[in-house]
Design brief:
The protein is an all-beta fold and about 120 residues long. The chain has no helices and ten strands. It is globular.
Length: about 120
């Protein structure tokens, strides 16, 4: 479980972490400086999908490749995948966080903190 040890004296808020459809075009989750801890992903489509998380400064993390449900070996039933970081301090994303899936059928839940009290 990620630590909240990165909380500072500045106001911070947790991003919405409900399970939701991943957008297929690059979408801003927050434009504020943020700390990313982990993401939970489910590909319900038969085809493989790629999810990209990008810093608002256009610095992309390594793409996450999700096997499709049609891949009986690695994802026979729409298996969930969880990606996080060993460091309890997370990853600083100074320009905010953007997300995009290469196609429909991907759901996600993200755990991240962003500066500010709203939006």
């Amino acid at each position: 479980m990620p630590s909240l040890s990165t909380l500072r004296t500045l106001p911070q808020r947790q991003l919405d972490n409900s399970l939701q459809a991943c957008p297929t075009s690059l979408t801003v989750l927050t434009a504020s400086k943020a700390v990313f801890f982990e993401i939970f992903l489910v590909n319900t489509n038969a085809s493989d999908r790629t999810v990209t998380l990008t810093d608002g400064n256009a610095v992309a993390m390594s793409p996450i490749i999700l096997p499709g449900t049609g891949n009986a070996t690695s994802n026979p039933t729409g298996t969930a995948f969880q990606y996080g970081f060993a460091s309890q301090n997370g990853v600083q994303m100074t320009g905010g966080i953007k997300i995009q899936a290469s196609g429909a059928g991907v759901n996600y839940s993200i755990f991240a903190l962003a500066e500010g009290l709203s939006g």
